[in-house]
Design a protein that fits this description.
570 residues; Glutaredoxin; Ubiquitin-like (UB roll); 4 domains; five-stranded mixed beta sheet; 23 helices; 41% helix; oxidoreductase; Nuop51_4Fe4S-bd
Length: 570
């Protein structure tokens, strides 16, 4: 039980050598750590079996005192899993199977690198030995992902050794309004999609009358292709718990809830472990660190409805009711969970908070653009060489993300579009590749930041069919509460299906545009308000493809099955 700040510091010092040796910050050349990714992607590719086989091989060779095997969170390079990294050198092995374990351990024992398991640059085809030499990692700046791939997420001592819970200790030495002022000065905006200033949200909650108050972590990440929040929970759950505790202290809450999808079993399991560990350590519960502050956290499982990512629908779901949004005001900070003041932040937002408190708002605000500070985590998916998770400073351009970090388009194909913001976002063409990723620039371009999903499309993708795909998702996920969303998305989908089957008319294009704007303006919540974005953005940038489908009865990408015959030109 940690009952004081000095005790927390003592435990940090006790476990610091383990991390220092791993990161080569002290002379510990005799000890090697093999970190194996235990995120969802690598786990599904066999990382658990690999980890067990590595341990057997270490024991078989009598290396127990010199070589240790740990599980860790996602490195981000999900396409290449299972991934194992040997520290302190940082030798990066990818697509490692349990059959490779003997070679890896023998290599570690004899200082020999297993060349066939090294990463190969997709452009040069040259093998790269060290993690820090891979371009995918070089351009990144990891804050929310700072501990993913570095610590064992199931060991609170490793988190404490990485300055974990130091920010909470620092916060408890200050007045709540000073914490809110620091978060406000940092410029941190909600990473869940809307980008509302976090400090302002906390200030509204702190000023709201009534008790009890609640802090809710929104971990209902349902965008197709998005896994940022899930990976943070799997790789560094304590950073989210610490962020929630700081939010509770700043806003006057004593109870927190994490609303997470039941379909994320690894994230749920690590969260449960982390909460138990934090309670046993006295970092959750009564009189934390002897400072008189009490705060606890419970988990609430969601059934996987996309609309429950909307904050008012999420709150109803926690209350045990059907997850449907309600009109605002009142806002959750005024009347949220069970009618009490509630602040809702998403996983990535909360994971940033401890670093801001520890390193200061000026440091955080020094990164990013005028209106969007700090960094943002994106999940790269679709037609891109380096599928995975990245964290870059706000203001990094789409071109840098897709071609420098993402490695460009596979198979020599031509880039066509990038969808930002998931099903609620827009599709941006090649001429928009130099758009910086910040909230305002993306909105001006006709898309949104969203939670950070980023799906790349090549010349083989049909943009009309892409709009149909996302509309089908939004229509399926509509809760049906308000007519514009329930009926409007259904009608939009009918029109898109008509066009992609070759039965559309030119009048349909105008109808699509008008109805999309009506649905955006009249829907009750963010799902309906953003559902037409894929249609409007593709009409804006790829209208010629719609016209080809309607006028020429031809799909230029060859995707729509009824429209593959090229028109005869006279």
């Amino acid at each position: 039980m940690i009952t004081s700040v000095s005790e927390l510091t003592r435990i940090r010092q006790q476990h610091l050598p383990l991390i220092e040796a791993r990161l080569n910050r002290e002379k510990a050349k005799e000890e090697r750590h093999i970190l194996v990714c235990a995120g969802t992607g690598c786990s599904s590719a066999g990382s658990h079996a690999l980890r067990e086989e590595l341990k057997k091989q270490v024991e078989k060779l009598g290396l127990g005192g010199k070589v240790k095997v740990f599980k860790t969170g996602c490195f981000g390079f999900c396409k290449l899993g299972p991934i194992a990294v040997v520290y302190p050198e940082g030798i990066f092995y990818c697509r490692v199977q349990k059959e490779d374990a003997a070679d890896v351990v023998e290599g570690v024992a004899s200082n020999r690198i297993v060349d066939r398991l090294l990463y190969r640059d997709p452009t040069t085809q040259k093998a790269v030995r060290h993690l820090k030499e891979i371009r995918f990692f070089q351009a990144q700046q990891r804050i929310a992902l700072r501990n993913c791939g570095v610590i064992n997420p199931e060991d609170i001592n490793e988190y404490i050794a990485r300055d974990g819970y130091q920010a909470l200790a620092m916060a408890l030495e200050r007045r709540p309004e000073e914490i809110i002022a620091a978060v406000t000065a940092s410029g941190l905006r909600g990473r869940g999609g809307a980008g509302f200033p976090t400090g302002r949200k906390w200030a509204l909650m702190a000023a709201a009358p009534g008790q009890p108050k609640y802090v809710v972590c929104n971990a209902d990440e349902g965008d197709p292709g998005a896994f940022m929040d899930r990976s943070i929970l799997e790789g560094d759950p304590h950073s989210v718990l610490e962020g929630m505790a700081i939010a509770g202290y700043a806003t006057g809450a004593r109870q927190g809830y994490v609303y997470v999808r039941a379909e994320y079993p690894i994230a749920v399991d690590r969260l449960e472990r982390a909460i138990r560990q934090a309670r046993r350590a006295g970092l959750l519960g009564d009189n934390i660190l002897g400072k008189g502050f009490s705060f606890d956290i419970e988990i609430r499982l969601g059934a996987g409805a996309f609309v429950c990512g909307e904050e008012t629908a999420l709150l109803r779901s926690i209350e045990g009711r059907r997850g449907e949004p309600r009109p605002r005001p009142p806002y959750p900070a005024q009347a949220g969970l069970w009618g009490k003041p509630t602040v809702i932040n998403n996983v990535e937002t909360l994971a940033n908070v401890p670093v801001i408190i520890r390193r200061g708002p000026e440091w955080y605000a020094s990164m990013g653009t005028v209106g969007s500070k700090g960094t943002k985590v994106f999940s790269l998916a679709g037609s891109i060489n380096n599928t995975g998770l990245i964290e870059v400073p706000m203001g990094t351009t789409l071109r840098q993300i897709i071609f420098d970090i993402g490695g460009g388009i596979p198979g020599g194909k031509k880039f066509k579009a990038v969808q930002t913001g998931g099903p609620s976002g827009g599709c941006l063409p090649e001429e928009m590749l130099d758009t910086p990723v910040d909230y305002e620039a993306l909105a001006e371009a006709g898309s949104i930041m969203g939670s950070g999903g980023l799906i790349v499309m090549d010349e083989g993708d049909c943009m009309v069919d892409i709009a149909r795909f996302y509309l089908e998702f939004s229509q399926d996920e509509s809760c049906g509460r308000c007519t514009p969303c329930r009926v409007g998305t259904k009608r939009l989908l009918e029109i898109l299906k008509r066009i992609t089957s070759g039965e559309g008319s030119m009048d349909d294009l105008q109808l699509l545009e008008n109805l999309s704007r009506d649905v955006k303006e009249a829907s009750l919540c963010g799902l309906g308000q953003t559902a037409p974005n894929p249609i409007l953005s593709t009409l804006r940038y790829f209208r010629h493809e719609y016209e080809a489908h309607v006028r020429d009865k031809y799909c230029p990408a060859g995707v729509c099955p009824n429209l593959t015959r090229r028109p005869v030109l006279h």
